[in-house]
User: Fold this.
Amino acid sequence: MAGSALRRLMAEYKQLTLNPPEGIIAGPINEENFFEWEALITGPEGTCFEGGVFPAKLVFPPDYPLSPPKMQFTCEMFHPNIYSDGRVCISILHAPGDDPMGYESSAERWSPVQSVEKILLSVISMLAEPNDESGANVDAAKMWRENREEFDRIAEKIVRRTLGIPT
Amino acid sequence: MRTLSISVLSLALTSIVVANAYYQKKQFYPSVVYITKSNPSMAVIYIQAFICVWISGKIIKKIFFGQLRTTEFEHLMERSWYAITETCLAFTVFRDDFNPKFVALFTLLLFLKSFHWLAEDRVDYMERSPVISWLFHSRVLSLLLLLGSLDLHFIQHAYLSTVSKGASVQLVFGFEYAILITVVINIAIKYGLHSVDLNSETPWDNKAVFLLYTELVMGFIKVILYVAFVAIMVRIYTLPLFAFRPMYYTIRNFKKAFSDVILSRRAIHNMNTLYPDATPEELQAADNVCIICREEMTTASKKLPCNHIFHTSCLRSWFQRQQTCPTCRLNILRNPATVPPQRQRPPNPPNPFGNPFFAGQNPFQMFNQPNANGAEQAAAPGEQGRPAGLAGAERQAAPATTHQPQAAHAPPPFLFPPFPFLPFLPPPPMPPHNLAALSPEELLRMEGSERENVEARIQCLRNIQMLLDAAVVMMQQYSTTAILSAQMPAPHAAPNPFPATGPPASADSPKVAKVAPTTSGSAQAAPTTGHSGANSGAQASSTIDKPGTSKEEEGRGEESTTEAGIEEEIRRRRLQKFVQAQTHAGGQD
Assistant:
């Protein structure tokens, strides 16, 4: 038998392929290595990210699902909870031990019960409702709070860029 | 492409140097002397030697590893930078015998080290790769054999040289290769475990434990080697700065392995002693998939106090990190169900009232006795059976609630003792004093989600319902008594049960007065329907058996009217109040 992390990732891949949730596509970049995935997320409807298709990379640790994977958008993003290099800062991706922002309760942290699907759904809801307290991208958080029109304008520009439409 | 051009350039330079020397000296020996005496030529030769090492490294890599994965390459680069810096530091210690041979030996050491790292990464990758070919196995095995024999050879060489010529730089090599051989052994053991696991059809649950212990033992050996090395170096030469970083990491890894082993042992111990194995029926009832590994649970699964079921091995590896239920985050160390609550908390919880009389007693039993007596005295004889039955029900419900430690040890409420003969007030389940002071886990625990807790709650609600029914029956009895005693015009006393609640309330105690309005509230909701209207909120079962009891009470009421004496006197007084209340109510209407 292969390692438990590998079997679990294979099971999740199978599940995601058989019953793909709406707005999410995810799978290993190549089937030789199940520990690096690529995901495509559609922007939630009714928000400034609506219509966008955002590519992201998921890197799984060898002890998955005991430790959470890391997620990084590979396109340009402007969002209070996404670092400027694309890394996603969301409590479901943090192991209960560490608390980079010092505010998350352990109830919303990573646990082996979580899955790729849940992570991606959480990220979609994070796109819809940013948490401006965590502030992975301080500029975006500030703009989200104080100048929503400008934020929406930048988000729309990013959406157009992901779709390859000239802005 | 760039490396290729560099090698070609270097080769060209070397051949020019050699050709030049041979052209000038015509003979082999003089030309060699010429090259070694000329610094520029030697520089070219050194560069060529370095490139030869590089190329041979590439070739060996190609033979034993094929294409390197990105992570492997990154690891290699990162580690080699540190290793190179440390080697340069080591040079400073041995600057007296610095010569080409010395550099060559260090280069060789670095060269071999890098293959050890690669082998380590490659074997770790076994667990994560979906396909392991025979090529992989033969490559890893031959590489391990080669590295092991080389290490052994160099250790032997270092040992012999140290013994014959005294301490020298060979001491460093001896230790370095000794550490490398522990690495080789570690990799070999891991490889063996992984291949056994790969060849077995079912997941091998104990592999993680074996890996942990291997890590621990190897870490220990490495720590001893490093400490001995530093001690010897300090005695003979000087403080070996270059060994500090790897020593620090080795000690840190050993510490981590040690705590992992302890945590793992604790987790295994807890699981074996505290949690029951899930039975096939329970597995059938649940959806039978372990949510940690997403695989079916057929063997070895455990049920936590919160009723969540997982594979034993999955739970063990999770408990090594965290002592919570993966699904509901219940802290399993603080709430083992099979251990009686007394062992979890101090045996004698502080009693805020300082009343030794109540300490450690079941409050339900205390109040049930006076209640039964009180019912005997104050209520009609027909009601006697009921409170007694209720008391029994309460006693049954009590053990269920004591399962929740908080409820069991909550101090009895202060209000009750002064009124021991309330006929219709069964003690409610003791609430803790200050719900806000409890942590979410405690609240969750108190609430409970198991079947018995839910049953206890339902039982409690039924009891309350029964008591409400009893209260209504009592009221009816009072009104019928009022009619039959014929001391006032009867007709409109019976249809309106609302005023009937007044007398018992005022007569018995002020405490009842608080409860009576709640029952009268339901009566007020449907005042026109009369008797049965009072029961509109009650369940069908209770309304069915109610008319019977009320008839019975009417009969008994008639009997009681024939009785003379104090009871009659009490009734009369009550009736006076009853009339007052009725007129009052009439005024309101």
